Amino acid sequence: MRTLIVLTMAASVVGCTRWSMDHHLNNAYRAYDRGDCSRVMLELSQVDRTSRSRPFIHPEVSLLRGQCLERQKLYVDAAQTYQFMLQQYPRNEYSYRAQARLQTLEKLGHLRGNEAAVANPVNATPWR
């Protein structure tokens, strides 16, 4: 009986952590839709804290963080976030989106000379 109680409590803690992570990520998306990037960053920090054992969520968090940095006109920071994603998660769906955001930033002229070179190196397709 004691083993059953311990297993039940362990399962509930894991579920609470997952629920908490999902809750904060959903709040971040809602705040992004409202244009409240300071709230987005706060919620994403909460996701980071609760997702250390769940690295699959990190690319999605990084992409949303980069998009919010773009919204705040912090284009170099956004480009560095996207470049980090390409290096850390080269075959992830969100990294493909990050690559597209880098190309868009470059085409819109938000990255100057050497910033564009750092953000989008020639022939650096990470998903080869």
Secondary-structure blueprint:
Layout: H1 2-34, H2 37-50, H3 58-71, H4 75-88, H5 93-107, H6 113-119
Description:
By secondary structure, this protein is an all-alpha fold. It has one domain: Serine Threonine Protein Phosphatase 5, Tetratricopeptide repeat, CATH 1.25.40. Helix content is 76%, strand content 0%. It contains 6 helices and no strands. Helix 3 packs antiparallel against helix 4 (75-88). The longest helix has 33 residues, at 2-34.
Which terms would index this structure?
single chain, 128 residues, mainly alpha, Serine Threonine Protein Phosphatase 5, Tetratricopeptide repeat, disordered C terminus, TPR-like_helical_dom_sf, Tetratricopeptide repeat protein
How many structural domains can be distinguished in the coordinates? 1
Structural class: mainly alpha
Radius of gyration: 18 Å
Described by the principal axes of the CA atoms, the overall outline is: globular
What is the CATH architecture descriptor?
Alpha Horseshoe
Strand content: under 5%
Number of helices: 6
Poorly predicted regions: 6-15, 121-128
Q: Mean pLDDT, nearest integer?
A: 82
Distance linking N and C termini:
53 Å
Main beta-sheet strand count, sense and barrel state: none
- The H/E string reads HHHHHH
DSSP, total strands: 0
**Helix share of residues?**
over 70%
CATH topology: Serine Threonine Protein Phosphatase 5, Tetratricopeptide repeat
State the name of the first-level CATH class.
Mainly Alpha
